[in-house]
């Protein structure tokens, strides 16, 4: 029995336990970023200590943005602070996840409460995080996905609707340079300044679907660490100012009709 949610989808696998995944590796069909929903921007990630780091801002709502750049459906098991964002269990690749269609972009905006509602992801203090409040504070400050390809079946080749293009090599080099170490950094571990809270409820509808995994182990594992800008600087990570992707001009900047001026 398999399932899943809208543009996405879910899928609890009855009794299915794959082998433990290998160490995090990035090559694969899915790209992942974090989006500051209050600013309306994707947050830039910075390489350091063999990982990629994002600077969040306490009190801001955020989303996990996923891009399926492949011509096939994929299943994405989403972990936030070590917790499955759909089921609330300690995260494991065998668990329920979201199914992305070929070329689809999806924003996961919160902890799933039902097929029609989530509790918003909000950057909070570690003590106010959902993980801490449920007695599971060991993995605060990390968002990860385990990606599974679908067992082959025939369907027409889609036209990919790609999101943001992958960074050019020069852009990656610039990003690496911008994240160079501060001279004299002692390498001391920093206590996390941010966790993910269980925010206000909002509508987010999904539906069930069937999905057969092509393998017992994920084809791709991605991980993003997040913390405050202050803590990232203390780790020796030099952040651009502002510490997020520059906003590009938009042909249609307003999505909805604004209120008229007051009389």
What would the keywords be for this entry?
263 residues; mainly beta; seven-stranded antiparallel sheet; seven-stranded mixed sheet; 8% helix
How would you describe the overall organization of this protein?
The chain is mostly beta strands and 263 residues long. The chain has 3 helices and 14 strands. Strands 1, 2, 5, 9, 10, 11 and 13 form a 7-stranded antiparallel sheet that branches. Strands 3, 4, 6, 7, 8, 12 and 14 form a 7-stranded mixed sheet that branches. It is globular. The chain starts with 29 loop residues before the first strand and ends in a 29-residue tail after the last helix. Residues 1-7, 9-24 and 158-187 have low confidence and may be disordered.
Question: What is the topology?
Answer:
Layout: E1 30-36, E2 41-42, E3 45-48, E4 51-56, E5 61-68, E6 74-80, E7 83-84, E8 98-100, E9 105-108, E10 110-114, E11 117-124, H1 130-133, E12 142-149, H2 169-178, E13 195-203, E14 220-228, H3 229-234
Parallel strand pairs: 4-14
Antiparallel strand pairs: 1-2, 1-5, 3-4, 5-9, 5-11, 6-7, 6-8, 6-12, 10-11, 11-13, 12-14
Number of helices: 3
The share of residues in helices is under 10%
Terminal CA distance: 59 Å
Write down the Rg. 19 Å
Helix-strand category: mainly beta
3D shape = globular
The major beta sheet can be summarized as: 7 strands, antiparallel
Low-pLDDT stretches: 1-7, 9-24, 158-187
Percentage of residues in DSSP E strands: 25-35%
* Beta strands, count: 14
Order of helical and strand elements: EEEEEEEEEEEHEHEEH
> Which whole number gives the mean pLDDT?
79
């Amino acid at each position: 029995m398999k399932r899943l949610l809208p543009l996405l989808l879910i899928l609890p696998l009855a009794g299915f336990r794959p082998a433990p995944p290998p160490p995090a590796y990035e090559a694969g069909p899915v790209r992942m970023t974090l989006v500051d929903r209050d600013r309306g921007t994707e947050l830039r990630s910075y390489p350091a200590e063999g990982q990629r780091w994002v600077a969040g801002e306490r009190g801001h709502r955020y989303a996990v943005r996923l891009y399926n750049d492949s011509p096939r459906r994929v299943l994405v098991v989403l972990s936030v602070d070590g917790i499955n964002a759909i089921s609330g269990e300690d995260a494991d690749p065998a668990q329920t996840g979201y199914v992305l269609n070929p070329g689809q972009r999806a924003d996961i905006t919160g902890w799933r409460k039902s097929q029609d509602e989530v509790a918003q992801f909000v950057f909070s203090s570690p003590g106010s995080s959902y993980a801490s409040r449920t007695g599971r504070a060991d993995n605060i400050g990390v968002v990860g996905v385990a990606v599974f390809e679908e067992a082959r079946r025939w369907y027409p080749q889609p036209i990919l609707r790609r999101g943001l293009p992958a960074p050019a090599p020069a852009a990656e080099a610039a990003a690496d340079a911008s994240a160079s170490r501060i001279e004299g950094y002692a390498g001391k571990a920093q206590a996390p300044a941010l966790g993910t809270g269980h925010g206000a409820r909002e509508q987010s509808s999904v539906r069930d679907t069937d999905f057969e995994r092509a393998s017992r182990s994920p084809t791709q594992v991605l991980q993003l660490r997040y913390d405050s800008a202050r803590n990232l600087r203390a780790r020796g990570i030099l952040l651009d100012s502002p510490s997020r992707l520059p906003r590009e001009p938009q042909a249609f900047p307003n999505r909805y009709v604004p209120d008229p001026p007051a009389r």
